[in-house]
Amino acid sequence: MSELADRADEIRGLAQSCKTINDLAKRLGWSMEVTRHANTVLGLGLADAKLRTGPRTEARSVPKPQKAKPKA
After folding, report:
1. CB–CB of 8/37 below 8 Å?
2. Cα separation, 52 vs 45, whole angstroms
3. Is residue 49 within 8 Å of residue 21, measured between CB atoms?
4. Residues 72, 70: Cα–Cα separation, whole Å
5. What is the DSSP letter of 1?
6. What is the DSSP letter of 19?
7. Mean pLDDT of the chain
8. How many CB atoms lie within 10 A of CB 49?
9. Gyration radius (Cα) of the chain, Å
C-alpha cells in the first residue's frame, strides 16, 4: 500500500489543526506537491495558501518621507 493509505488516520488528525496545506506540509515535512496530492486523495478540504481568501485590499499611496530641514 502507499504511504498515504497507511498513514491516512495520522494525516487526517494533523490536518484538523491546520488551516492551509502549507501548515500540513511543514508538520509532515513533505513537499507541497505531495501535500496537495494528499489533500485531494484524502479529501482533507484544506485551502491552498497561494490562493487569496477574504476581501481584496486596495493599493494606497504612501507619502515620501520629508528631509529634515537644517537648523540655521
Report:
1. no
2. 15
3. yes
4. 6
5. -
6. S
7. 85
8. 14
9. 22
The grid coordinates of residue 6 equal 497507511
Residue that the C-alpha cell 506540509 belongs to: 25
Is residue 21 within 8 A of residue 48, CB to CB? The reply is: yes
Region class of 26: left (phi > 0), else alpha (psi between -120 and 50), else beta: alpha
> Which has the closest alpha carbon to 27: 41, 42, 12, 40?
12
Q: Cell for 40?
A: 485531494
* Of 16, 21, 28, 29, the residue nearest 49 (C-alpha): 21
Give the integer Cα–Cα distance in Å for 27 and 16. 12
Q: What pLDDT, in 10s, does the model give residues 47-68? A: 887 766 667 778 888 888 888 8
Q: For residue 24, what is its C-alpha cell?
A: 500540513
- Percentages helix, strand, coil for the chain (3-state, rounded to 5) are 45, 5, 55
Residue bearing cell 501548515: 23
